[in-house]
Request: fold
Amino acid sequence: MSSSKTRVQGFKFASRSAGIKKNGKFDLAMIYSEKPARCAGVFTTNKVLAPPLVVSAGRIEKGLCQAVVVNSGNANACTGSQGLKDALRTGELAAASLGIGEDLVAVSSTGVIGVPLPMDKFESHVPLLAKELQADNADRLAEAIMTTDLFAKTSSRKGRIGKRDYTILGVAKGAGMIHPNMATMLGFVMTDVEIDSGLLQTVLKETVAKTFNAITVDGDTSTNDMVLLLANGMSGAGPVVADSPEAEEFTRLLHDVLLDLAKMIVRDGEGATKVVQVLVKGAVDDDQARQAARTIATSNLVKTAFFGEDANWGRIIAAAGYSGADLDQDRVEIRFDDVAVVEKGLCVGGDWEDKASEVLRHDEFTVTVDLKLGSGSASYYTSDLTYEYVKINADYRT
Amino acid sequence: MSSSKTRVQGFKFASRSAGIKKNGKFDLAMIYSEKPARCAGVFTTNKVLAPPLVVSAGRIEKGLCQAVVVNSGNANACTGSQGLKDALRTGELAAASLGIGEDLVAVSSTGVIGVPLPMDKFESHVPLLAKELQADNADRLAEAIMTTDLFAKTSSRKGRIGKRDYTILGVAKGAGMIHPNMATMLGFVMTDVEIDSGLLQTVLKETVAKTFNAITVDGDTSTNDMVLLLANGMSGAGPVVADSPEAEEFTRLLHDVLLDLAKMIVRDGEGATKVVQVLVKGAVDDDQARQAARTIATSNLVKTAFFGEDANWGRIIAAAGYSGADLDQDRVEIRFDDVAVVEKGLCVGGDWEDKASEVLRHDEFTVTVDLKLGSGSASYYTSDLTYEYVKINADYRT
Reply:
């Protein structure tokens, strides 16, 4: 389902160690499409917007993109007008090296906030990237965007329209500061299907809501998050048009790629030892289910209990209670995987704790909260809160 | 400002070790007023309401209260109809022992969720409490309501009307799960001033909003929180009526008592090593200032940075950015105590980090975020997020 050597017709990648990170690892990368690709983007909801997002959002909006330059080690955030100049200059360097228009270049950054980009490194390395582009190099792109990530994240799916195959390949980064609305999360998705720009944006927004925006590691939302989706049509498959079986299939495949990546981010959550799906059912509607699932998944008390392998359903029902979702405490049911723990708001008694503790010892399990009020449901994916989380984030800059 | 031997005319207290807690510490207490007191209450906003709150809220609403029975070690929450019977029976036992009406007794519980109260212990110990009431025993009340608290919390102030002195004495408990809307927080305030019930409720609500509801340890809100204020008029000072200088003075003194207690709760926050005031100024209005201050104060990334003594203003500005408050990133100013770190959204440069790190080494300091948009301001008090927090909450029930 995920192969680092996956190719997408017409797309090429290059990564370098440009010295932006102190540890000598890859920190600068380029994505290039032989033809200008139709594109869509989803950007952070944080009101503090990093300059690369200001530049990229404006360009993506026009619907065409041919190259992306992304760096790790420095977020180019809270860098004012200098930051904006640097983001524009990065695009200019890429455009000149590739012989394409500046408007076709998106830029993206992740890393430390408040420090100007080391532009000398961009001046010398961006042109080199343009010469090193290769079709089977997406794995190195995934490496180059890592910050506190412990492993590179890629996923792909294949679809078929008529006799033509097409590919969707996604790469992402993110480990801490992950919350709804894509905190410190970058995602780049390349496909060679032919698809309308408007439809592309709709599908991306929908699928991001159910994947990247349904995970939480620590509840913070960053200044730099973006997900870009580029579709160059070069497989010859398509066109995918709205309200067709092909659009449905493409949406499903894109969802699967993004959900793979989202779960990898949770698994890589800073200090995380467990990935927990919080499934809320029986809510008045899907929005309330999402609200309850998010609140439970974000609760520090719930997350530390997961770390302690403590089936502390009291904290779960309390979090549901303050989530704002409608709730009748006498109806609530809670299960850890298949083990029923609470029915009609009361503990089931018996040997529930032994059975539930067994589930909590796994490194992946599902907590189901059934509110028994309606048919709304939603899932959130979360990690446990560990000593290691505190250690990583207390020491990050030092 | 806080003395455990403080007396309030006509109030008596008793505490016992009834065996509800396994460690043999005080776990059951009674507050008694020689005359029925006018009363006011603020209760949790959690939709999962523990039975003692259901019973007490109904009685407090009627405006008179003469006794309170409170236990720690068991929250009597998520205990269904048995829990309701047990809460009622506790009140009945107290009323019979004291020879007063049941409607004049409030009950309150804190501790583990989902386990029925050990009523045999209440049957035998509540009548004994009634016989052990003493006027100078509030310090033992403060002990009896502790759960994960490391120290007992009391505070008092004296006021004067004409030639008569009056006293306000508060006791509180709370260490973890502390967030706006009084998570796992109990507060009992006794005063011997004479004051109208309606005014009492207004003043309590106002002051709780600025004190107990302006602190955060871990963002969770519990099923059991309540603050009760009893005024028996027995000092002869008063009556305090609305819109008078006496009402203003009483409000100020009550605020000071509650703020003392609220800060003690933050200082006692599970695993906390620092108490940080997050002051947001220059917001469009006070509500937006509160929203931004709360978001910054609740951010795990900000709180771990405090623990790491890392002047990570990037996390602070990012939290302000996703708080929902209006914000122009080019105007924001940030200070650690008197050390300016960010001006017009940019780092001031120079030796800011040395100076700011010096401030962060203190165990109490203020972070000021000035949005430079309007005149709205609000403060939140928070603790750092530490290894110890994770340890305490991963192990709580085991």
